[in-house]
Write a structure and sequence with these properties.
alpha+beta, CBS-domain, 3-stranded mixed beta sheet, 23% strand
Length: 346
């Protein structure tokens, strides 16, 4: 029986790399853009994306257009693993082999619909179903598990201030930090839009140590002046309640409990005075009495011995141009931001 990867692979003969572009045009269907394998002296030496053949000089050899092979996969490779390896190598195509011999070419578009239900190409992580399956298997095997839940703070504000591309970079940066610190015997998933979760097959003490480590890390993104904020919650390691035969229910209970713990910690943190401009902006944007203008941006300006200035850029109703206001920061960041915003919307 053919594997999932084999069913999705485009099985076609490779092109001779010594052909000219003009010669290859007679062999390739240009109405169906795809990645083609190139062979030279009986060996697959690279790939070429078919749209290039339309515009490249006709006398050029395909060899001169070859992209190096970054990923080679056997047909038995699970789809999620194939997607993970192609994402890690930023590869637009993989060479697929069967019993050590060339079979065909696979590109992300060939399996995006199939794997997209379980795998997130942006972060290179599987989605929440993987955590549930893993947790249920552990519990049925008699193993103790603990869930660590990670929730980005005010993620929507990154998209509003810096744009969605930077928002994607924030998700990727946090995912990479989590990958770097997740133990080999644990499972890391992207749980939701701005949420991640780690499942650990261990008692609570080990997971608590990892959670504390994660809370102490700094995640930075180019173009964002402050470290990315996130909250870490935890549940499990103390099996109570439902019996092991209800594994799926137990796992969902633990995930929900870890999520609630993260939410409670986030609320406790927000009850304190903001410690960063990002936190202050998130708090101010929820204030109805400061809602007469739309904050387009805000930044801190360091003047050395003279201290800091906060600069607020606000769009106001019935005013075509934004207004820029600078005010000194005298100890309390939130108070300085409120003052600058009030002055800006006068």
């Amino acid at each position: 029986m053919a594997s999932n990867l084999e069913k999705l692979t485009r099985i076609e003969a490779p092109l001779n790399a010594q052909l000219t572009v003009a010669e290859s045009r007679e062999l390739v269907d240009h109405d169906a853009p795809r990645t083609l394998a190139l062979v030279d002296n009986g060996r697959i030496i690279g790939t070429v994306h078919s749209p290039l053949l339309v515009h490249a000089p006709g006398e050029s050899k395909l060899l001169s257009l070859a992209e190096p092979i970054r990923v080679v996969l056997d047909v038995s490779t699970p789809l999620s693993e194939a997607a993970r390896r192609m994402s890690a190598q930023q590869s637009q195509a993989a060479i697929i082999t069967k019993e050590g011999k060339y079979l065909g070419v696979l590109s992300p578009n060939d399996f995006l619909g199939e794997v997209g239900r379980t795998f997130d190409p942006l972060t290179g992580l599987e989605f929440s179903d993987r955590l549930r399956e893993w947790g249920q298997a552990c519990l049925e095997d008699g193993q103790e598990i603990t869930i660590i839940f990670i929730d980005l703070n005010d993620f929507g504000l990154y998209n509003k201030r810096y744009g969605h591309v930077v928002g994607d970079h924030v998700l990727q940066a946090l995912a990479q930090v989590l990958k770097d610190h997740t133990p080999a015997d644990a499972v890391l998933v992207r749980f939701g839009g701005d949420e991640f979760a780690i499942g650990m097959p261990s008692e609570r003490a080990r997971a608590e140590a990892l959670a504390e480590t994660l809370r102490g890390l700094q995640v930075t993104v180019e173009g964002v002046p402050e470290p990315v904020g996130y909250t870490v919650g935890l549940a499990g390691g103390r099996r109570v309640g439902r019996a092991a035969e209800h594994g799926a229910a137990n796992v969902d209970d633990l995930i929900n409990a870890a999520s609630r713990d993260a939410l409670a910690r986030k609320r406790e943190s927000k009850a304190q005075r903001p410690r960063s401009l990002h936190e202050a902006l998130a708090a101010v944007m929820q204030r109805e009495d400061l809602g007469e203008g739309i904050i387009r941006d805000a930044l801190l300006i360091d003047r050395g011995p003279e201290g800091q200035l906060i600069e607020v850029i606000v769009s106001r109703p019935n005013h075509p141009e934004p207004r820029i206001v600078r005010r000194p920061v005298k100890g309390d960041l939130m108070a300085a931001l409120e003052t600058a915003l009030r002055d800006a919307i006068r």
